[in-house]
Amino acid sequence: MDISSAVLNRRSCRGFKQEPVSEALLREIFSLAQQAPSGCNVQPWQVIVVSGEKKDQLKNQLMMDVMQKQKPYPDFDWSVAYSGKHKERQFGSADALYSAMGIERQDKMQRNIAMMKNWAFFDAPHVAIFTMDKYLNLMGAVDIGIYAQTLSLLMMERGISNCMQGALGQFPGPIREMFDLPEERGVIFGMSFGYADNDVPANTARTSREALEEAVLFAS
Ligand SMILES: Cc1cc2nc3c(=O)[nH]c(=O)nc-3n(C[C@H](O)[C@H](O)[C@H](O)COP(=O)(O)O)c2cc1C
């Protein structure tokens, strides 16, 4: 698969087959992703790949934490309130997902149930948790974004799908506890991944993109 096809065909996956990725393939993907660029080559990513029983335990702890605490307590500032065209696009992506799942816009309960699937990793066999030293702030966040997309495309090339999840940075407590993270390290976001189950309705969701002229100015 060439890079253009990977970019064109990649989409967020929210339903997976119960078939783990082999350890050899996991190691191959994550070692290649080490080549991702970062500002001054600081390589801020400290990634935890969770699978098997540990992943199930983490899922249970996260679901409990979300239900008990209700209000997110992220390690990093995710508090942007989208407005204008950004808000419209946010609605557009939610609409694409909930329509694919057959959930009405007003059906708050079903939407909440769908949201909870984030912390069950959409039943994926693996989840990658991206952490970094908190003081790195915006610079680190940019690097981690680039790292995550590098990882995503390497997965695509091998027939593996994923969903990046800001939701996994919203309730960092169980991750901090399970992996004994020091206070200076924060959970920024995560990525559930595995082989896509194309029979899951959520996986039929399609998002759109703006026209090139909306996004890019070619100046000369
Ligand atoms: C940084 C980041 C965080 C995201 N967080 C979530 C999330 O918490 N839950 C979710 O279902 N999708 C999440 N997504 C997926 C986006 O909703 C998705 O990429 C967007 O709607 C475009 O759709 P596509 O990936 O299918 O092209 C996230 C994507 C990114 C890049």
From TrEMBL:
Pfam families: Nitroreductase
Name recorded for this polypeptide: NADH dehydrogenase
Top EC group: oxidoreductase
InterPro entries: Nitroreductase (IPR029479), Nitroreductase-like (IPR000415)
Native source species: Parendozoicomonas haliclonae
Residue ranges occupied by any Nitroreductase domain in the UniProt entry: 8-195
Gene that this sequence comes from: nox
Transmembrane domains' residue ranges: none
Gene3D superfamilies: NADH Oxidase (3.40.109.10)
E.C. designation(s): 1.6.99.3
Family classification: Belongs to the nitroreductase family.
A GO molecular-function descriptor: oxidoreductase activity
Keyword field: Flavoprotein, FMN, Oxidoreductase
Cofactor(s) the protein needs: FMN
